[in-house]
Design goal:
Helix content is 30%, strand content 22%. The chain contains ten helices and 15 strands. Strands 8-9-5-10-4-11-12-15 form an eight-stranded mixed sheet, with helices on both faces.
Amino acid sequence: MAYSESAALKALSEIRDPRTGRDIVASGMLADLIFKDGQLRAVLSIDPALANGFEPVRKSAEDTLAALEDVETASVILTAHKAAPQLGKSAAPKKRVVPHQARRPDGYQGDSQIETVLAVSSAKGGVGKSTMAVNLAVALAKLGKSVGLLDADIHGPSAPILLGLKNVMAKTEEYEGRRLIKPFTAHGIKAMSIGFLTEDNGPIIWRGPMVQGAISKMLWDVNWGKLDYLIIDMPPGTGDAQLGLAQDIKPQGAIIVSTPQDLALADARKGVKMFEKVDIPILGLIENMAVFICPDCGSAHHIFGKDGARAEAENMKVPYLGAAPLDMVIRESGDAGIPAAADDGKIADIFAEMAQAIIA
């Protein structure tokens, strides 16, 4: 297996900061990671006064990286600077510019106690991605997991409506020496959205880097606390903003939402390929609006086609996590701000089964 940055980050995340017990990646110590021609260099940013005490950490990180596939030599440098020289260059240090790469702030990181980050994505808008993300988060919480939801759809935030949190503004609180944003709690989950940070209902007209910065802020500067799962409701599409978000945040897995029709499935394939390119595993595919049951006669109508997503999941060799119907209960509960998964009944059971499949 060839070298991958995600494998290197995963390996480094096993190494702990001796002062805090947090891993060196989540704590923001990793300032740079560069691989070129078999040489791998990592830069750990620390207080210079602590350099002697961090020598065992540096050596452990160096040994860990040296053991990775395709790595011929590995070096780990301790520095007080955030930028490091390009590998193989002897000139003065320069900032390494990577498009859309956000830099973590100093100090305590809001996501440092999150066990698993999962991205819920759809390469196409209008397939019910946000509705699925919210209901999956609530269903996971009902199964006893501590769960957060990050609404990363900057241009069309849905969480405030779906969770019954319209017209509320987030506040900040002091924690571990930093001023962090306090998430809202609703239906057993913690939630953050750009909708909690803006004053009115007007459109947010931002370009890629600004979107990227806002999403990173909602991850690193929000006091999420200890979570088993953080569900990220990704912005729709497979463009630069989505790719940059996937690379910067590096979720442990992605869930693709699609309707059964060929038009949506074509975009779902693009979504799968995007995550594969950045070494993020696909946990599975969810089929939304799979069938409509007539409330008058009880007959089933496959308005968008039958079993299209199930067949596509088999073709792409990814798990099929289940199907949600085109049902009035889901629509009405979303409009009312009470997710269907929070209630009891057949629809809630469907989301519970999907949540169990994700845990498995």
